Amino acid sequence: MIMPVQEPTFFAVVLAAGGSSRFGSTKQAVQLNGIPLVRRAIDTAVRVCDNRVLTVIGHDADTVIAAIDTEPCFIVVNEDHGEGLGTSIAAAARACRGHADALLLLLADQPLITPQHLRALIDTWSGANNEIVASSYSGTEGPPVLFPSGAFEALESLTGDRGARALFHDGRFTLGTVPFEPAATDIDTPADLAALV
User: Fold this and answer.
1) Which structural domain, as residue segments, surrounds residue 91?
2) 181-to-21, 114, 169 alpha-carbon distances in Å
3) Is this model's pTM higher than 0.85 or not?
4) Per-residue pLDDT reduced to its tens digit, 54-71
């Protein structure tokens, strides 16, 4: 008997827990063309992963939740968000363990990410449990990034403000990349936002 091949299950993770210290207010909730940044990121993720979208919040959680409004997603509250980005990634990986074959990690402050680019990351992934697929831009690799479930344990061990980039050069994993220069645009200051309006 020939068994049908089961399609991998992907979860998207939107990281939106940071304190926005350089912006001066909760940037996840600020609007670009009438849409809060966090809702824009979730909407992009939903177009690829349907209801399998998880948003990690922390700083000013009530404001961020209000900005999310009716967008369909799971919410994870990172109580340790003040310790840095690594704690949010770890919280997301713990939440996805046992449910996802891979996760797509996005930042709420990268407003030019497209569903097409997220699908390109998925299409580039070989399905290997040790293959990471990152976006490449401005001479570096970074988010959005696809992490296979084989990397979840390493992601769960992240602490402080150290992101997951160290895994790109970890001998346990191979790294594929998809060029996408718009990923270089992130919103750190009000001037960054103004430049896009």
Assistant:
1) 10-194
2) 25, 12, 21
3) yes
4) 999 999 999 999 999 876
